[in-house]
Amino acid sequence: MSISENKKVVQDFLEDVINQGRLERADALVKSDFIELDPLPGQQQGREGLKEIVGLIRSAFPDTNWVVDEMVAEGDKVVSRFHWTGTHQGAFMGIPATGRHVKVNGVVIDRLEEGKMADSRILMNDLSLMQQLGVIPMPQG
To answer: Fewer beta carbons under 10 A from the terminal one: N or C of the chain?
Structure first.
């Protein structure tokens, strides 16, 4: 696959699966034995585990919207700097809905094989998310 084709797979996953909630689209974009290199607590491996965690995020933040701020690719890897926004309307990682609107940034490194996402490492600003949800106090300054 070309670099541009790899980037398109990642962009389609972001738009179709995460933003639109069309979890079934992951079947065409993600390998069945997908590996999350830095899984969220309780996240199962494999495509089904990825679909489950996306579903949990979407149920906690039903208006979630992920935006790629910058994307670079080389060989079989695609690196995306992103931010996402959403309103906390359902339980998330044991935190009851707060009704708070959040904006979280991060970076994800996806590796593709045969035109599908094979593994991923997502590094998200979890501290900022927890502060915005009111779980961890904001620093006084």
So the answer is: C
